[in-house]
Amino acid sequence: MKLLVVDLLAERVAFGEKGVEEIIRHFPGYEVLLWAPHTDEPRNYPFGKRINSPEDADAIIITGSRRNVSMWEPWMDDVAELIQTTEVPLYGICFGHQIICKALGGKVIRAPQNSSFISNVTYKNGKMTKQLFTHQDHVIDSGEMEVIGSSEHCEIAVCKHPTRPIRSVQFHPEAVASLLEFSVECGDMTSEERSAFGNGKQDLDVTDSLISPKY
After folding, report:
1. N or C: which terminus of the chain has fewer CB atoms within 10 Å of its end residue's CB?
2. Catalytic annotation on 97?
3. Is the pTM here over 0.85, yes or no?
């Protein structure tokens, strides 16, 4: 089986390499393909195979990014096409959530300020969890995607497609506490930026929030 990671933080050590490492931990047994269409200089990870264009896979995950859906760039057309045409399970995190909604008829806008904190997410079934957000773009129209979870600052925080195997979250379930600590150690994040996330513990990991959703 193959997992295609649309690796949009490939230039970063922590949220890039270590974040992807946390994500793929939840896909045991998969061959990992890494596609970074936004840069010609991705980091060389000690895992996975770098590819220059999307290949057939059994599952796809689109990561977060420092780029913005609200500031569309040409390479995003290729990601949007992948979203629109794939038939395999597709998962989106942060930027991935936004570009999935945009590609399926939704709308994304840029807020005046960045949101970086741990916040409650309330699901349609009444379940509430604490999750880590760091973003400035917001989905304000989810298009084909059905909204199933919201946060006080972000009405469209969790989505699923009604007929296709697609699920997306605005938060970062891969940003476990150890990744946050490493972010400071490697210089990806300052101590002040890190302090915004408190103890860094989230209620849902990649498996529960995306791959095998219970909510």
Report:
1. N
2. no
3. yes
